[in-house]
Design goal:
Blueprint (H helix, E strand, L loop, with lengths): L2 H28 L5 H23 L10 H20 L6 H8 L2 H13 L5 H18 L12 H19 L5 H26 L7 H7 L7 H27 L2 H4 L5 H14 L5 H30 L3
Length: 313
């Protein structure tokens, strides 16, 4: 592993995080009008030409016949679980709070990188994981009178996403980021299409928790503006998926994942500018603990990187 690869991985990670933050704006905007499976189906069809082009550039369509298709499908299922859980929090929670809880991703990646990938995780990093978990509890407020079930959704999303990126790190030295994105998009399309069929056959609207309404609402014919917005998620997702896949392909998961915290910047900025959302005191304290834990992990990862670079050969 070279220093230039580490810089490239960090760049792709931060670029991918910013790209996906644009998708968050669109999906939160339309979450009150259309079901999540409709958004995903439209997004997947819009993304497909871009992904196929990236696959072609990365080695040709023949690379889609990977001998690791099982692992690619498993990773796609994990990401399907992740992004669906993440999106379902949109109708209920502030964008900054969703992203702050989702920012536990580096903690889960670090926790999984040791037993799954054999990466060395020090006691200090385990301590940082514990601090970050406490930060998540502060934000979620379990047992309080204001506890909201939907606040668990970003954490579920973070766990599933971390698991998927650990899989990406295991298989990424053999399969390109574009191939991983193709399988991810294919799983999204199949699952969303199946759910859309079930909901359509059911033939009635669900009336209950807003997250489940977003999941089980009947399809609506979008106007031109909304159709263009949802369709724009296709190229956004295609580019973002490939950037993140490339980042985890190039670098050790427990190092590059620390830069996932840049998502907090964009979540706070977009939430304030577009929806006039300001985080509460619990959100600030919890996010501070989560970010502090991530910076601890990044600091000690950097120390190990420096040591690696000083080693001969």
């Amino acid at each position: 592993m070279t220093f230039s690869n580490r810089i490239k991985a960090i760049f792709w990670l931060m670029a991918g995080v910013f790209t996906f933050s644009l998708q968050d704006i669109v999906i939160k905007t339309v979450s009150g009008s259309y079901p999540v499976h409709q958004v995903i189906v439209v997004r997947c069809f819009a993304a497909l030409p871009f992904i196929l082009f990236l696959v072609y550039r990365a080695g040709g369509l023949k690379t889609l016949m990977s001998p690791r298709r099982g692992a690619l499908i498993l990773r796609g299922m994990m990401l399907l679980c992740s992004y669906t859980s993440y999106f379902l929090a949109f109708p209920v929670m502030k964008l900054a709070d969703i992203i702050a809880l989702y920012a536990t991703v580096p903690l889960f990646v670090t926790a999984l990188a040791g037993p799954v990938l054999g990466e060395k995780i020090s006691l200090v990093r385990w301590g940082a994981i514990l601090i970050g978990f406490v930060g998540a509890l502060v934000m979620v407020k379990p047992g309080s009178g204001v506890f909201e079930f939907a606040s668990l959704l970003p954490i579920v999303a973070a766990i599933a996403y971390a698991s998927a990126q650990v899989v990406a790190r295991r298989i990424g030295l053999n399969d390109s980021a574009a191939v991983m994105s193709f399988y991810q998009n294919l799983l999204y399309l199949c699952a969303a299409g199946a759910l859309a069929s079930i909901v359509t056959l059911w033939g009635q609207d669900y009336d209950g928790h807003r997250s489940l309404v977003f999941l089980l609402r009947q399809w609506e014919m979008p106007g031109l503006r909304d159709l263009l917005l949802i369709g724009a998620c296709g190229p956004i997702a295609a580019i973002g998926m490939t950037m993140l896949g490339e980042a985890y392909r190039l670098e050790e998961a427990n190092i590059v994942t620390s830069f996932e915290y840049t998502t907090l910047i964009w979540g706070t900025v977009w939430g304030y500018l577009i929806w006039n959302e300001t985080p509460g005191i619990e959100s600030v304290i919890g996010a501070g603990l989560i970010v502090g834990a991530g910076l601890m992990i990044a600091l000690f990862a950097r120390s190990s990187v420096d040591a690696d670079l000083r080693e001969p050969g």
